[in-house]
Amino acid sequence: MNVFVTGGAGYIGSVCVEELLEAGHTVTVFDNLCEGHRSAVDPRAGFVQGDFNDRQAIADAIAAARPEAVIHFAAHALVGESMTNPSKYFRNNVAGGVNLLDACVASGVRKFVFSSTCATYGIPEKMPMDESLPQKPVNPYGESKLMFEKVLSWYREIHRIEFVAFRYFNAAGASARFGEHHRIETHLIPNILKVALGQKEQVDIFGTDYPTPDGTCIRDYIHIADLAQAHILALEPGKTGFYNLGNGEGFSVRQVIESCQRISGRPIRAVEKDRRPGDPPRLVAAAQKAYTELGWKPRFPKLDQIVQTAWDWHVKHPSGYAD
Ligand code: UDP
C-alpha cells in the first residue's frame, strides 16, 4: 500500500516506517521535526517537512502523496508537560489532527490508523484493563487523545473513513537502527540507561507512596517493533476499532531500574522524589482483542528483552541522533 505516516521521524514512527518498508509498502513521512530527527527517517521513505497545524500544508502533502492509508503518530505525548501546558496538547493533538482528517477526506483516503493511549482510561476501575473500561483521563494528554478518538468515530460515520485506534501502553526498546532520542528526555527507561552510560548522575523515582507492592508506579512496557507490527496488521481490509497494545504484565519503577542494572551490568543511582502530577498508580493491558481480531502477537514480550534492545541502541548511539 501507499502509506502516509505523520510523525515518522519520531521514536515509534521511525520503527514503524522501517517495518512498513520491510513489508513491501511505500511510505511518505510527514514530520515537523520539532521532536523527530531527519536521520531517524529510513532513507527508503519519502520525506516532507511540514506541520499539520497549517491546514494548507497538510492538504497539499496528502494531495501530492495520494496515500491509500494514513498512520498518524505525530503528537505531543508527555503527561507531565500536559499538566502545565494543556493548550499545546489540545491544539496539536486535537485541532491539528482534524486538519489531517479533513485533508484525508478531501483526497479520498479510506483508512486511518491512530496512536491513542492507555492514558485515555485515567485511573482504571479494574486490572488488567480491557477496551470496555470507562475512559476518564486524569491529564490533558489523555483527554486530547480521547477527544480525537471521538472525532474519528464521527468521521467514520459521516465520511466513511475506516479507522483503527491503538491504545498504547508504555512504548520502549529499539530496533537495530532506530531508537529513543528525545531532546528533553522524560521517559523512564532512557533516563535510567543514561545513568548507566554515565551521562546522568542519578535517576529520580517519582513517588514511592503509591498503593503498589513497592510504592512506585506500575506500567506495562511494550516493544516498539511489536507496536509497529500491529499497525501493519491494521492496514488489512475490514480492520477497524479500538485496541489496547501491551504485554499484560506490569513492572514497577524499581523493577525497571533493576532490569536496566541487570542488562547493562552497571550500578544505577536512584533517588526517591515526590510524585509527578497526572500519573496513575498502575496501568496494565488486557490486549486479547488485538490478539484475536488482528492476529497480533508480541515478539519481544519480556522486559529484559525490551531493555536489552534499548541498551544496545544507546551504547551504539551515545548521543542519539546527534552523532
Ligand atoms: N518515572 C520516574 N522517573 C523518571 C521518569 C519516569 O520515576 O525519570 C516514572 C513515571 O512517574 C511513571 C513511569 O516512570 O510512573 C513511566 O513514566 P514515563 O514518563 O516513562 O511514561 P508514562 O507512563 O508517563 O507514559
Number of helices: 10
Question: How many structural domains in the coordinates?
Answer: 2
Total E-strand runs: 14
**Secondary-structure class:** alpha/beta
- CATH top level of the largest domain is Alpha Beta
How would a crystallographer describe the biggest sheet? 7 strands, parallel
* Anisotropy-based shape: globular
Span between termini: 33 Å
| Bound compounds | uridine-5'-diphosphate
Element order, helices and strands?
EHEEHEHHEHEEHEEEHEEHEEHH
Uncertain residue segments:
none
Helix content: 25-40%
What is the topology, as strand order, of the major beta sheet? 3-2-1-4-5-6-11
**Percent in strands:** 15-25%
CATH architecture of the largest domain: 3-Layer(aba) Sandwich
Per the CATH scheme, the topology name of the largest domain is Rossmann fold
Topology, element by element:
Layout: E1 2-6, H1 11-22, E2 26-31, E3 46-49, H2 55-65, E4 69-72, H3 79-82, H4 86-106, E5 111-117, H5 140-159, E6 162-168, E7 170-172, H6 188-196, E8 203-206, E9 218-219, E10 221-223, H7 224-234, E11 241-245, E12 251-252, H8 253-264, E13 270-273, E14 282-283, H9 288-294, H10 303-316
Parallel strand pairs: 1-2, 1-4, 2-3, 4-5, 5-6, 6-11, 7-10, 8-13, 9-14
Antiparallel strand pairs: 9-12
Helix pairs in contact: 1-7, 2-4, 4-5, 6-8, 6-10, 8-10
Bound molecules: uridine-5'-diphosphate.
